[in-house]
Amino acid sequence: MNSIKLNSGLVREGVSIQEMFKLLQLYSELRDYTEVRKIVFRENYLGKISDSRIEDILRAFKKRFLSNFGLPSAEVVGEIIKSDLSDAGKKQILLPYYLYSDDLLRLAYLELVVASFKLERSLTLDHTDVLDFLREIGKRHNNVRKWSKYLKGKWATRFLTFLRTFGLLEKFPDNRLKKIHVKPGTFAFFTLWLTSNGRPFQNVLSHDIWGMYLLDRSEVMELAHTASRKGWWLIEISGDIISFQPNYSLEEWLKYGME
After folding, report:
1. Are 130 and 182 spatial neighbours (Cβ–Cβ below 8 Å)?
2. In this structure, what are the phi and psi dihedrals at residue 75, rounded to the nearest 5 degrees?
3. What is the dihedral sign for C-alpha 15, 186, 220, 2?
4. What is d(CA 127, CA 143) in angstroms, rounded to the nearest whole number?
5. Alpha-carbon distances of 248 from 31, 209, 232, rounded to whole Å
6. Which residues fall within 8 angstroms of residue 33, CB to CB, at 6 or more apart?
7. Contact assessment for residue 73 and residue 24, using Cβ atoms and an 8 Å cutoff
8. Which of 61, 53, 63 is CA-nearest to residue 103?
9. Residues 80-87: what's their mean pLDDT?
10. Which domains does the chain have, with CATH numbers?
11. Cβ 66 vs Cβ 33: under 8 Å
12. Minimal CB count within 10 Å: which of 43, 151, 189, 244?
């Protein structure tokens, strides 16, 4: 994510959350994108009339889940999509994949949502606010500045849809931003994956992924304690030292540990 590439991909790709769920489940079974693609077209797996729309959704899936952003693999995410985790928890898990895979989406989210909560600015957001953001970005990025009025309007609409899909903006016509209630299962999924891949637990507590969920340090610690009370791991705090002992590997937790 070092080189910033701002494009309008969100307009064609859409949010398509249910389609992402279906593709993740299929991918976790086949573990081969070429085979997934064949089935999607052969069986009209996504129930779409237009081949071009299917191509857009597949492109979005590949970009979001088959790229290396330092997040759990599509196979692992597919397993939790098939699990008994609540639908709200499953949806929450996909949030960072959308943000890390789209530079403009992430930039808008950080500026218009995260910063609003951190700086206690006005916690409302509408179409005009997003257009104003695009105009400011266009001053530094010529490709965005050259977008047509229509394209900017479509992108702004998609961005608001994205926020509403993930529960970060009240239902239309209400335009109030809101914090999502992060599920313990969402927190445990990423924590177990990060620690199993060599991240010290104390580093996990300050990982930038929690900022994407609008969590502050105290909220992260509360989720860690909640997961401990559920028996997913043990934590002990002595001064500045925090010890962490998982009771499950991520794979075991997916099979046996969740509620």
Report:
1. no
2. -60, -45
3. negative
4. 20
5. 24, 22, 6
6. 27, 62, 66
7. no
8. 63
9. 89
10. 9-83 (no CATH), 184-257 (1.10.10)
11. yes
12. 43
Give the DSSP H/E element, type plus range, for residue 172: none
pLDDT band at 1 (very low <50, low <70, confident <90, very high): very low
Q: Residue 120 has what pLDDT? A: 81
Backbone phi and psi for residue 244, each to the nearest 5 degrees, phi listed first: -135, 125
| Angle at alpha carbon of residue 63, lines to 253 and 187, rounded to 5° | 25
pLDDT of residue 257: 79
pLDDT of residue 256: 87
Residue with tokens 């529960």: 167
The residue ranges of DSSP E strands in 104-143, in sequence order, are: none
Mean pLDDT of 17-35: 97
Q: Two tokens at 245?
A: 């002992």
Task: Show Cβ contacts of residue 61 under 8 Å, excluding neighbours closer than 6 positions.
Answer: 19, 20, 23, 24, 27
CA angle in degrees (0–180, nearest 5) for 218-224-226: 105
Measured CA distances, 104 to 87, 90, 94, 211 (Å):
27, 24, 17, 17
- 3-state class (DSSP) for residue 86: coil
Residue with tokens 């597949």: 58
d(CA 137, CA 153): 14
Q: What is the largest CA-CA distance in the chain?
A: 60
CB-based contacts of 42, cutoff 8 Å, min separation 6: none
117 is written with which tokens?
């909560």
